[in-house]
Amino acid sequence: MTTDTNYDIVLVGGPRDGGLMNSVGSAVVELEIDGFIHRYVLTNQHTEQNGTQYTVFNYDGMIDPKGAMPGAETPDGGHHDPVDTDGE
After folding, report:
1. What local confidence, expressed as pLDDT, does residue 1 receive?
2. How many separate domains does the chain show?
3. Where is this region: Disordered (predicted)?
């Protein structure tokens, strides 16, 4: 974990648990990881690490930007694979 003082938030839960970053004043942070959007939301909690105060952003879940989750059936009876880009 970095001690860069430019970072003002810590991510809790999800794939970037414990990660530090700059919120740029946002209430929601969305990260694209492996083709999925992972969302972290602002809380009123703060934590201290190495003498620096960070605002806590909790993990809110993962969404597929294509609109369906892996294994979900498509309207034509097939299956949705968010990693397969050949079917677009």
Report:
1. 47
2. 1
3. 65-88
